[in-house]
Amino acid sequence: MDDVLIVGAGPTGLVLALWLKKQGIRFRIIDKSAGPGETSRAMAVQARTLELYRQLDLADAVVAAGHRNPNINLWARGKRRAHVSFADAGTDVTPYPFVLVYPQDLHERLLAERLQVLGVEVERRTELVSFEDKGDHVVARLRTPDGGEQNHEARYLAGCDGARSPIRHALGIEFEGGTYKQIFYVADVALNGLEPADEVHIALDTSDFVAVLSYGGDRNRLIGTVKDERADRPETLTFEDVGHQAIEGLGIEVRKVHWFSTYRVHHRVTGSFRRGHVFLVGDAAHVHSPAGGQGMNTGILDAINLAWKLAMVVKGQAPDSLLDSYDLERRAFARKLVDTTDRLFTFVTADGSFADFVRTRIAPVVASAAYRIESVREFMFRMISQTTLSYQESPLSEGKAGSIEGGDRLPWARSAASDNYAPLADIGWQIHVYGAARSDLRSWCERRRVPLHTFAWRPEHKKAGLQKNALYLLRPDTWVALAEPQQSTATLDRYFSARGLAPGEVL
């Protein structure tokens, strides 16, 4: 019997497989399609995703394959109204102060190849027909490539099977939300006249909207909306049919359309990310507008959140109740994200003369002025990059030291002497001390087999909100679990015993 059956080999399922493999968990990953996707809607890989990709030595490969877009240009009525520099805003926040444009189909292929190197093949043309939760494991009925069927047993089932998730439907879990009235279009094009050519451009007009993302050479992605009567016949639309007012406002000429597609967008969050031994992950659990390029990244972070918890439970280092925190942590974030992207998308696409005036005249001026304020620049970057994501309300989060609370992302604080993110390449519990570690803490870490990393106190640490000589216990997904100002080993013992956790040991 396998530990986990993963259904769906998009980025979410592949990342879950990679993280489970790194932790020594037995699994199968199946997908009913014949191969990876050939086209792509998701384009952006955010900084927080890249930070976590360091755990599998993936970050450098993804950055090298993608195209860095360090700036965003906001256009309205044919003029550039604002210029937002991520390089300036994120340079003290993350090693990755940019939006990486990397089409999902290419991203999937890279992840699948990395899984292949580790000796795991995605089982293509293999479909989940049905499943039954037996209380301590799941029995799944699979249809194999030859048309036959077989039963497969696994302790847990992970539904990474997309927005229409058959697994979610079979569980009968509600998927609350709605559908935007607009039709989205995406197009891969060759074009002339885009300046600067390696930056993101967003154009707002009275009746049109388009975003242009460059991903190297003469490859560009257009994302726009269709709002008028043409939206009633999306299946017959071509690129010539969609509004070109915003495109022309950018001063560009589309020379060739390599690929064009239309689709509707929903904004929904499922009522539960967990039901017994079955989990919903990625689009199966939440979908939202493409505003801000958050969707694929959110699914990837779902998978990483779930993977370390599954590994601890399977290895006997934690009770099954640890898995409930996956639902609590990720559903809360998904709801907040859907609300945020919904408000942003509604603003960008609102109809009416007053809405047009605010969107094309007022908003660009306000955005340009606000961005001159350093704190505003950093806040905007943190929101888009998902580096603000916190689990402070989680039962796994405790304490405060400096301005850092349990549940926060560990701040990046690189100096000439050290990079405090280097130890985070390991998937496992670890403790950081910025200053000097007490001898009893060192003994505790040796006894409990929890790595201890100390960093000579630097001004960069204080600037990042860390407290000198405090103890920061980090979860395997690198968020702060416990922030303890006094380096109390008694507090560490209470933290683990209260939750039934035993890192480095088997219960």
UniProtKB/TrEMBL annotation:
Superkingdom to which the source organism belongs: Bacteria
Domain FAD-binding: 3-340
Signal peptide: none
Listed cofactors: FAD
Example GO molecular function: monooxygenase activity
PANTHER family: BINDING MONOOXYGENASE, PUTATIVE (JCVI)-RELATED, TRK SYSTEM POTASSIUM UPTAKE PROTEIN
Lineage: Bacteria, Pseudomonadati, Myxococcota, Polyangia, Nannocystales
Database matches in Gene3D superfamilies: 3.30.70.2450, FAD/NAD(P)-binding domain (3.50.50.60)
Name recorded for this polypeptide: FAD-dependent monooxygenase
InterPro entries (UniProt xref): FAD-bd, FAD/NAD-bd_sf, RIFMO-like
SUPFAM superfamilies to which the protein is assigned, alphabetical: FAD/NAD(P)-binding domain (SSF51905)
Keywords on record: FAD, Flavoprotein, Monooxygenase, Oxidoreductase
